[in-house]
Amino acid sequence: MSAYEAIKSPTIRSTLLSLVASVTLLANAPANAELVFFDNFEYSVGRSNASDPTGLNNPFTNQGGWDRVKAVNITGSSRGYLYTVREIPGYAGSFPGRNSNNVLAIESRPASMGGQTDFYLQFGDENAPRGTVPANVWFQFWIYSNRYDDPTNQNDQLSAYGGRFKFIYPCNGPYPCQQGQINWLNTLGSTTGEPYWSNQDNRELFMTTVDPYTNMIDYQLAPDWDQYKIGQTNVSENIRPNRWTLVKIHYDTSTTSGAYEAWMKPLGGQWVKVADWVNGQTPNFSWTIPAGSVGGHRVFRMPTTIDGPDSWIYLDDFAMATTEDSLPVYDERAVPPPSPPNNLTVVPRGN
Question: Candidates 3.40.50.2000, 2.60.120.200, 3.40.50.880, 3.40.50.2300; correct CATH number of 21-334?
Answer without folding.
Answer: 2.60.120.200
